[in-house]
Amino acid sequence: MAFGSGNTPMNWVCLHLLLPLVCSVSSVLCGTLVKSIPGFDGDLPFKLYTGYVSVGGSEMFYYFIESEGNPKEDPLLLWYSGGPGCSVLSGIIYENGPLVFNYTGYEGGLPSTYYYPYSWTKTASVLFVDAPVGTGFSYATSADEYPSSDLKAAAQVTGFLRKWMEEHPEFLKLQLFIGGDSYAGLTATMVVKYVVDDNDAGVLPRLNLKGYVLGCPLTDQALNANSKYVFSHRMGLISDELYQAAKESCNSSFYEVTTSEPECYENTQLIAKQLKDINKLCILEPKCTWASPGQDEETARRFLYENPGEFIRSLPKDPEYYCRNFGYMLAYVWANDGSVQKALNVREGTVLDWKRCNKSLSYTKNVDSVIDIHKYLSTKGLQALIFAGDHDLTVPNTGTEKWIRDLDLPVVNDWRPWLVDGQIAGYTVKYSSNGHRLTYATVKGAGHSAPEYKRRECYLMFDRFIHYYPI
Fold first, then answer.
1. Which pLDDT band holds residue 21 (cuts at 50, 70, 90)?
2. For residues 67 and 26, is the Cβ–Cβ distance under 8 A?
3. DSSP tally for the chain: helices H, then strands E
4. With 50 as the cut, is the pLDDT of residue 24 above it?
5. Residue 294 reports pLDDT greater than 80
6. pLDDT (0 to 100) of residue 323
7. Residue 355 predicted with pLDDT over 70
8. Least C-beta-crowded within 10 Å: which of 40, 78, 445, 470?
9. How far apart are CA 424 and CA 443, in angstroms?
10. Do residues 13 and 163 make contact, with C-beta atoms less than 8 angstroms apart?
11. What is the DSSP string of 358-422?
12. How many beta carbons lie within 10 A of that of residue 118, not counting itself?
């Protein structure tokens, strides 16, 4: 797979927002300041700016939250979600942002939100972007712009970042980190490469890239598929006998098994049957089902609009039967509310139906692996944090650990527990070679993606890493 040159086209069309500019006192940042949002009691206790950046014929929507620590010196993190097609608002609300829905007290109507103190924005300024185009509130000016791919998405995010930095040059001096989770593990890795190549080629302005942060990252399609079988066996979800039979008949390769391999196909089908009712996002949690067979999140969201009372009655009273999907539904109600969109400065009529994850996105998966890019980046003296939930069956930690080992980097701090409040929060190992430092960490008890399950622990992990403290 050829990834092309790292140079990013510079002919992005400049967007002039027809909105009042408000400047922050703590920095010279100018943009559209969001002081309050519907459902939140009082003014926001952090500085949130929203806006668009034109990248070709696409209008990329972003949320910029200034660091609540020292915004003049704290690092800047670019972050977007996976899917592909999942809105970064989902990350802000459920994973690493300063807002949370009060779904336990939901009684219908517009959901309320409250401030969450263990946000990554406590220790870094975070530029959240809805990417690729067609995700969240990002939209295209013509239908031809909507089809996307791994390669196009990576180039688009790179173009967005460079354009935003050009429009906000005061951030050029800050340390820059690039991050994403889940499927964004593929494209965010490519974005890092593009920025590195631009810097090496002397493209101006030079971005002060220091490293990258990847959570539960998809890195290699075949490796990830194979790792699901290894993980399932290690976790006791499939028997020793069935695993060994599948391993031998499939020659340890479970990726794209077809009926032309009858014994292998039969064994993998038996394994699929064993795992059918397991929640792949977190094997510890129940697999959520809807009232109607085959009902998906979109259908459930429409049902919620029409029958809010049924949703309230369906909320589990016993935490043991908690279903994470109940909380997801509130995002649809909140983000599709006209008053919310007005407060966020979303352009009227551009996105008629906000989706947490746009499954109808026209998207071509044309990059199978970025392991070679990770090998290339390991020669560039960057700081990298790769983390994984140890109960994630979507992108299992077994696969992540394998491709990291395959980089063949020297271990400088061997496998050990890392602690929060004196308790083991996971395990970590650190690699280093020629100035490149890669820290890998598991998050104990977490699923996919880890911050959604262990939000405070992941904040403390990020805080230590971003300020160069041992995890």
1. very low
2. no
3. 14, 17
4. no
5. no
6. 80
7. yes
8. 470
9. 9
10. no
11. -TT--EE----B-HHHHHHHTTTT-EEEEEEETT-SSS-HHHHHHHHHHT-PPEEEEEEEEEETT
12. 17
- Residue 470 three-state SS: coil
Distance between CA atoms of residues 187 and 184, nearest Å: 5
| Domains delineated in the chain | 22-221+367-466 (3.40.50.1820)
Orientation angle between helical segments 221-234 and 240-249, nearest 10 degrees: 150
pLDDT higher than 70, residue 334 = yes
Tokens of 159: 């173009």
Q: Are 329 and 295 in contact (CB under 8 A)?
A: no
Tokens of 344: 């966020």
Residue 192, H or E segment: helix 184-201
What single DSSP character describes residue 454?
S
Distance CA 136, CA 126 (A): 17
Cα(351)–Cα(361) distance, rounded to whole angstroms?
13
Residues present in the chain in total: 471
Place of tokens 């085959």: 294
Closest to 385 (Cα-Cα) out of 455, 436, 456, 457: 436
Q: Which long-range contacts (CB under 8 A, 24 or more apart) does 432-438 make?
A: 433/378, 433/409, 434/379, 434/381, 435/381, 436/377, 436/378, 436/379, 436/380, 436/381, 436/382, 436/384, 436/409, 437/382, 437/383, 437/384, 437/412, 438/378, 438/384, 438/385, 438/386, 438/404, 438/407, 438/409
**C-alpha dist (Å) from residue 343 to 37, 118, 333:** 6, 24, 15
In one-letter notation, the amino acid at residue 16 is H
Mind telling me the catalytic residues? 182, 392, 448
Q: What is the mean pLDDT of residues 285-297?
A: 59
Written as six digits, the tokens of 224 are 């990830």
pTM: 0.88
**Radius of gyration in angstroms for the set of CA atoms belonging to the chain, rounded to a whole number:** 22
HEC per residue, 130-165: CCCCCCCCCEECCHHHCCEEHHHHHHHHHHHHHHHH
Pick from 111, 146, 119, 142: nearest CA to 132: 146
Rounded CA separation 388/115 (Å)? 26
